[in-house]
Amino acid sequence: MGDAMDTDRLLIAASPGERRLARLRAGRLVAYTIERTSQADLVGALCHARVTAVAQALAGAFIAIGGGAVAFLPADEADPARADGTPARPIGAIVTVGQALPVRITRAPMGGKGSRASARLDAADREAALRVPPPALVSPGPGAVARALADPPGAIVTDDPDLAATLRAGFPALAGRIATAPAPLFDAALEEEIEGLGAPEVPLPRGGRLAIAITAAVTTIDIDTGSGGGGGGGGARAVREAANRTGLLEAARQVALRSLSGNIVIDLAGLPGGKGGRAALLAAAEAAFAATVPDARVLGFSRLGLLEVVRPRIHPALAELLGTPASGVVPSPLSEALAAFRAALRLAAEPGAAPRLVASRAVVAAARSGEALAAYAAKAGRPLALVEEPGLPDAAWRVEDGRRR
Question: In Å, what is the CA distance from 17 to each residue of 37, 46, 247, 369?
């Protein structure tokens, strides 16, 4: 790969139950996604659905989409014949319980709510769905890798030769850019930055920081000058202005890296008194988000002086995939089990090593669920011994070499 390509690289690290995608431009992380076989988000999937309940109060209907999954169909997306810009009819006038209809999934399950769907399809998709008895998944949506390749990087590097071959066949125009490299594909510095994407704070220059909090209704980002706030007078104002501009750039970057969406408010490190100062900050915010998160809209300042941003909710936040958003992220047992598989594979690469996973009941149960354990055995060439250790906290695990016990 030439230097020009190497400045824009997509790294795809494959491990049992999970693919981790990191995009780097000039060595800087600009996008990060994880894709898990047990947590497919279904966005873009074509389904032949069946209506299971009409919810007048919610202005929509619940539909079975196959495989035991249920999605919500809003009234304004339920009528295939509705012209854009015209009011939606009441949901009860559009669908009835038991009715079958083709739909496409438009939003992944998130925040404890199921997928969202639309029946507003083109004729070809509608005909394809009608050929399959409902309820059924007719065709899956594009996965994280396909979405990443929609904006092709200069180079695509994976540690999975089978995935490389699949990508060359599926994306022939990009075949010359696809290469393989031995694991670990992510170096220590990149792993450390990825680990930080679950933390509630992001350091800024001169002691500043971003504080990020995710709630069901809104994500808040606080820009703080920290101990570098400076003294009084023009010096302090200059520090605040620099912190705000740097903070806005990093806030947009973190929104992209953490897949934050919905309502986002940014509390800046003090606002200038004149309208010209606010207008300059608003322009800086618009430029930062346009360059990094083009599907986000900067709405302006609220009466409380908070900068309001909105981004469509389509895929779940990284924090939700990893575990439970709290003060930072509390990793789920599944996240811990998948991390343990990666550690065990690193040990398994040593000649003669015999990895065993010693973990809490929750982590062992997660390790046994789904296909990841079998995928580990196929990749390592031998099964992974699982040992449940009573009394360990739910998130606790360690990988041992059975030869050294």
Answer: 6, 24, 35, 10
CATH 1.10.1040.10 fits 3-34+143-192, yes or no: no
Query: What one-character DSSP code corresponds to residue 317?
Result: -
- pTM of the predicted structure, to 2 decimals: 0.89
Q: What are the per-10-residue average pLDDT scores of the chain (405 residues)?
A: 67 96 96 90 95 96 94 96 90 96 95 91 96 96 94 96 96 97 94 94 90 92 75 66 92 97 94 74 96 96 94 94 79 95 95 95 94 95 94 93 74
Whether residue 358 contacts residue 393, with contact meaning beta carbons closer than 8 Å, is answered with no
pLDDT at 227: 62
pLDDT score recorded for residue 1: 39
Domain spans in the chain, listed from the N-terminal domain onward: 3-34+143-192, 46-139, 201-311, 330-404
* Amino acid letter, 393: P
Q: Does domain 330-404 have CATH number 3.30.2320?
A: yes
Provide the CATH topology of domain 46-139: OB fold (Dihydrolipoamide Acetyltransferase, E2P) (2.40.50)
Show the DSSP H helices in 258-360 as ranges: 275-292, 318-322, 333-348
> Do residues 63 and 69 touch, judged by C-beta distance below 8 A?
no
Distance of alpha carbon 189 from alpha carbon 194, whole angstroms: 9
- Provide the 3-class DSSP secondary structure of residue 2: coil
Cβ within 8 Å of residue 48, ≥6 positions away: 66, 100, 101, 102, 129, 130, 132, 133, 134, 135, 136, 138
- Show the CA angle centred on residue 159, arms to residues 158 and 161, nearest 5°: 90
The per-residue pLDDT for 356 is 96
Q: Parallel, antiparallel, or unpaired: how do β-strands 355-359 and 385-388 relate?
A: parallel
Q: Are 3 and 128 in contact (CB under 8 A)?
A: no
Which pLDDT does position 232 carry in this prediction?
Answer: 47
CA distance linking residue 3 with residue 11, whole number of Å:
16
Place of tokens 């990841």: 372
> By three-state DSSP, how is residue 377 classified?
helix
